[in-house]
Amino acid sequence: MTKKVCKNLQCISYVYTRKKIKNTYFRMRQGILYISSPKMLSERDIEKFITDKFDMIYEKLNHYQKESNEFITLWGKTYHLYVSKGNFRYYIENDAVYAHHPKEDIELVKKRIYHVELDQKLQLMKTHIQQTIDRVHIKPLPYKLKYLKSKFGSYHRKHQEITLNTFLARLEPIKLEYVIYHEYAHHLIFNHSKAFYELLSLMMPDHRAHQKDLKNIAIL
Questions:
Q1: Which alpha helices (DSSP H) does 101-157 contain, by range?
Q2: Sequence-separated (6 or more) residues with CB below 8 Å from residue 151
Q3: Which member of 1, 82, 123, 134 has the lowest number of beta carbons within 10 Å of its beta carbon?
Q4: What CA–CA distance (Å, rounded) separates 186 from 199?
Q5: Under a CB-based contact definition with an 8 Å cutoff, are residues 153 and 120 in contact?
Q6: Could you tell me the domains of the chain?
Q7: What is the pLDDT of residues 171-212, one digit of tens each?
Q8: Does residue 88 contact residue 104 with C-beta atoms inside 8 Å?
Q9: CB 101 within 8 A of CB 111
């Protein structure tokens, strides 16, 4: 049930939910403040907090309520991007990404989100990647994540590590998987010889289709 706290003819609409949690959480969505709090906290306490922070909350709600002209693409899906000043954090809800960053610089925000998303995806893919490289007797290598302007990934023979372009977080996860196997193949075969592609085929039989797709994608 939506309620309101008003001040000087301006109103903040809020929805209050009590849960079995220790902390109070606030979310702003479509001009409404959503509050989840421990059962011990009364609605009077919540309204006092809103009143005390009224101007700040009202300004942020208006900021989020405006239609965003900025977009961000993550794993092949495009979202509206809403950015507000604050310590870095973000969450995805429906067709929007809500982000906070010390600097309200859209490109910095996007790159930071790409980095986090790629790191999280690598953790989810870890077991699958391990099983695949085990089949061709390759040991796991450390990853370095970096926003690159000219390539999707690289293998560093001297440091024995793979660099992945965080731009890959914009694409379907299968493209990230292809780049990983491509760089692992270079761990054994440094050039693009017939033997290299035979090894890559053992790890990813349909690699040529993904390689072709990536050649048509410009890194922005």
A1: 106-135
A2: 165, 219
A3: 1
A4: 9
A5: no
A6: 1-66 (no CATH), 113-215 (3.30.2010.10)
A7: 999 999 999 999 999 999 999 999 999 999 999 999 999 999
A8: no
A9: no
- Residue 59's identity, in one-letter code, is E
pLDDT, tens only, 100-136:
899 878 999 999 999 999 999 999 999 999 999 999 9
Q: Which is nearest to 153 in space by CA: 178, 189, 124?
A: 178
Q: Residues, the chain, total?
A: 220
How many whole angstroms separate alpha carbon 95 and alpha carbon 79?
Answer: 5
Residue 164 contacts residue 176 (beta carbons within 8 Å): yes
Residue 220 in tokens: 């922005």
Strands 89-93 and 143-146, sheet pairing: unpaired
24 pLDDT above the threshold of 60: yes
What is residue 116's predicted lDDT score, i.e. its pLDDT? 98
| Rounded distance between C-alpha atoms, residue 204 and residue 189, angstroms | 16
